[in-house]
Design goal:
The chain is mainly alpha-helical. The chain has six helices and two strands, in the order ααααββαα. A two-stranded antiparallel sheet has the order 1-2. A hairpin with a 2-residue loop joins strand 1 and strand 2. The mean pLDDT is about 90.
Length: about 120
């Protein structure tokens, strides 16, 4: 069982590493709806080239899916778990930025942590 725990920790750290960039985090937040590079570029503080590079990295990591629609490539986040992770990270950051106390309901349920 320990090998599985080590593998999960490694994969989780890799995913969090991909989220550790403000532009990628913003793109993932936007990609709950399928969008193309032009639409995404208009919504983030990055050039089209930079957005394309970030999308390629996220796609290679399996965090974003792409499909062709004629000449356009449409991108979407790959998992509801990832959508929730991004939302929770932004919620935590919002509490920190605005000085709102963080929620703590006691000890975490071990079943939730293992899930």
């Amino acid at each position: 069982m320990r090998a599985h725990d080590d593998e999960r920790l490694t994969v989780a750290a890799e995913v969090l590493g991909h989220l550790a960039d403000p532009t990628r985090l913003h793109l993932l937040r936007l990609l709950v709806e399928e969008q193309d590079v032009s639409t995404l570029t208009a919504q983030v503080s990055a050039s089209r080239s930079s957005v394309s590079q970030h999308l390629a990295r996220l796609r290679f990591a399996g965090l974003v899916r792409a499909r062709r629609d004629g000449r356009r490539m449409l991108y979407r986040i790959s998992s509801d778990h990832l959508t929730e992770l991004v939302a929770q990270a932004l919620e935590f950051a919002g509490h920190t930025v605005h000085g709102i106390p963080h929620h703590l309901s006691g000890r975490p349920d071990s079943a939730k942590m293992e899930g």
